[in-house]
Amino acid sequence: MTRSTGWVPPAIRRLAADSVHQVVNAAHRFVRQHPRLKRALRPITHLVLPSIMPFRSGHIARADYERWVAEQGTITAADEAAMRADIARFPYRPLLSIVMATYETPEPYLRAAIASLQSQIYADWELCVADDGSSAPHVTRILDEIAASDPRVHVIRRPVRGHISAASNSALGLAQGAWVVLMDHDDLLPRDALYELAAEIVDHPEARIIYTDEDKIDGQDRRYGPYFKPDFDPDLLLGQNLLNHLTAYRRDLIQSVGGFREGFEGAQDHDLALRATAACGADAVRHIPRILYHWRQQTGTQSFSETAMARCVAVAGRAIADHLKARNIAADILPTAGIYHRIVFPVPEPAPLVSVLIPTRNRADLLRVCLDGLLKRTDYPAIEILIADNGSTEPDALALLQAVQSDPRVRVLALPGPFNFAHLTNQAAAEARGDILLLLNNDIEIIDSGWLREMVSHAIRPDIGAVGCRLLYPNGRLQHGGTVLGIGRIGGHFLVGAHREEPGPFGVLNLLRSASAVTAACLALRRAVWQQVGGMDEASLAIAFNDVDLCLKIRKLGLRIVWTPFAELYHHESASRGHDRAGPNAARFQREADIMVARWGDILLNDPYYSPNYTLENADCTLASPPRRQPRYRTAPATNR
User: Fold this and answer.
1) I want to staple 354 with a disulfide (CB 3.0 to 4.6 A). Which of 178, 299, 436, 612 is the partner?
2) CA-based nearest residue to 610, from 499, 454, 520, 481
3) Class of the 354-605 domain?
4) For the domain bounded by 62-307, which CATH number is listed?
5) If we measure between CA atoms, which residue out of 90, 100, 117 comes closest to residue 168?
6) Partners of residue 360 on adjacent β-strands
7) How far is Cα 496 from Cα 551, in angstroms, rounded to an integer?
8) What InterPro entries has UniProt attached to this entry (predicted)?
């Protein structure tokens, strides 16, 4: 197989990305350290970011991560003393059963894995090992040796190899603890891993599943590739094994769902996570946003999932299909982004009517493109378009508004007066007949005909309150990947400026996932939800942040906001109004920001879908120093609970 002349080896690409990332990071740190320069640059930020952000969008260079680990992830003697003091205050100490399956594990890695367990600061654990018929004599010798010296270690030997699911079930059968913790035979736990799990169990008795963040470790024990995960997201779990490492389950929960299923090897953990989370519900799933697992890679001996990736992806698809079938959801499951999955949810027949709400004033050039895409290049069969005309005066705009009304799907509402996006949208919504409302800016350009069907398929789901989509700048780079709370005090768009083909950290730019908010430039929701929250706040948030406020009100109902990359459009951002942070708009923008802070407070600083290990100075997954979540042992009360 030949390569094109433009092909660059992956190792060289990673090295180049690391180098560029470090240069841009240095510039970013310099600006942060000089507030006057930062303020001076702010008015042109929207012009600069789309060019520089692709080099920073989610890529964490090894050198940066190693520096961060040294500064933030090293346990000191004082830390250990604080943990032990905190453990002494626990009202009870849960027994944690570590379930491990071994098979031909290289001797140094097996010894290191067990040693990392024996060095845990929290000592109330047992190791339940099932050796799956290893022929290498050192495996038996090591297990016998350690079991003889440590009564917490229990070993069962399977006479015939049954593979990972059967072996894990054998290990599970040895467990006596109320909680089961899954650990691979060649990976490592940091010394505080079981302490953090036990503390979470003590603090949250309602929990049935607890998962943590993870990173990778190479053959020289160098850490890299951290996955700083969001809090539990059932849609992201459909696309990938979000829980993965390190995950703890109530033992009775694992038993109730039948343990590991044979025939699902390579995706057995994902299959278990899907069945267990469905059984216990999202409220019983807890996330500890700390790196508490080191997943060994590049050891010279590849795991099953590394050597049979195509089969693992197919098996994961079967697990997802079973999960959806059990919930009576007749969705299609498609591979996406190489190793992940896309769930295509159904749209009923006949399709529900969608009322598209478009505020506009003049700018016929933008509106014409938007309407052409809606009326001629969108394959959804049931739409009505309500154009909220905010006093257009230009002849070409007036002519366009007159002409489009010849299409029975289009209505023009005359709404003159000062521009108030929330008021215009509320008035259009009041005239809408559809069960689904689609808020749409006049500067949106349709790319693909199936975009609206994708958005409606999620908007009609009973647990979903609103749906956002992937918006691109005209140059093809990312403009909206969901809204991260706390950026610029209120919220900012995720990974702005990423190249269209960039997957983002662990593929999240290619996966359906939850977000705290999405932009009203293109937002779909059920009319019943809109009415339940009272629409947009036109009195206090006329222009800015009314979409964030809307989404937070929806989430307060217990509904989720989702962002889909499978509805993709161009957004000529603010082309018809100008930007809020400069000129005469700045004072009004500041006033509306102050209202949001007063209204939502700490909620804006604790986005469940954006790790506290990332700074809030931007939404590009830059590491926070220190992390925004303090370790529990530094904040635990000094008295008994």
Assistant:
1) 436
2) 481
3) alpha beta
4) 3.90.550.10
5) 100
6) 389
7) 20
8) Glyco_trans_2-like (IPR001173), Glycosyltransf_2 (IPR050834), Nucleotide-diphossugar_trans (IPR029044)
**Do strands 478-480 and 436-440 pair parallel, antiparallel, or not at all (unpaired)?**
unpaired
Cβ atoms 493, 519 nearer than 8 A: yes
Report whether 570 contacts 476 (CB < 8 A). Answer: no
Contact between residue 353 and residue 436 where contact means Cβ atoms under 8 Å apart: yes
- Cα–Cα distance for residue pair 358/438, rounded to 1 Å: 9
How many CA atoms does the CB half-sphere of 324 hold within 13 Å?
20
Torsion of CA 535, 536, 540, 542, to 10 degrees: -140
What's the pLDDT at 302?
A: 52
Kindly write down the DSSP assignment for every residue of 441-463, as one continuous string.
Answer: -TTEEE--TTHHHHHHHHHTSTT
* 62-307 and 354-605 agree in CATH topology: yes
Residue 50 has a pLDDT of 45
Nearest to 215 by CA among 362, 313, 73: 73
Question: What pLDDT is attached to residue 309?
Answer: 81
Burial degree of 221 (CB within 10 A; 0-12, 13-18, 19+): exposed
295: β partners: 216
∠ Cα 202 206 208 (to 5°):
95
| Residue ranges of domains in the chain | 62-307, 354-605
Say whether 57 sits in a helix, a strand or coil. Answer: coil
Asked if 245 and 189 touch (Cβ cutoff 8 Å), the reply is no
Q: Rounded to an integer, what distance in angstroms lies between the CA atom of residue 74 and that of residue 70? A: 6
- 318: phi > 0 → left, psi -120 to 50 → alpha, else beta; which? alpha
> Where do we find the tokens 């001076």?
40
Question: What pLDDT shows up at residue 365?
Answer: 96
* 8 Å CB contact between 152 and 125: yes
Task: Sort strands 464-472 and 522-526 into parallel, antiparallel or unpaired.
Answer: antiparallel
Distance of alpha carbon 274 from alpha carbon 413, whole angstroms: 47
For residues 522 and 468, the answer to whether their CB atoms sit within 8 Å is yes
Helix (H, G, I), strand (E, B), or coil: what is residue 170? helix
- As a whole number of angstroms, the distance between CA 370 and CA 386 comes to 13
C-alpha distance across the termini of the chain, in Å: 65
Q: Average pLDDT per run of 10 along the chain, which is 641 residues long?
A: 35 47 51 55 47 55 94 92 96 98 96 98 98 96 97 96 97 98 97 98 97 95 96 98 97 98 96 98 98 84 62 94 95 92 96 98 97 98 98 98 98 97 98 98 97 98 98 96 96 96 94 98 98 98 97 98 98 64 78 97 97 96 94 70 40
CA 104 and chain centroid, separation: 35
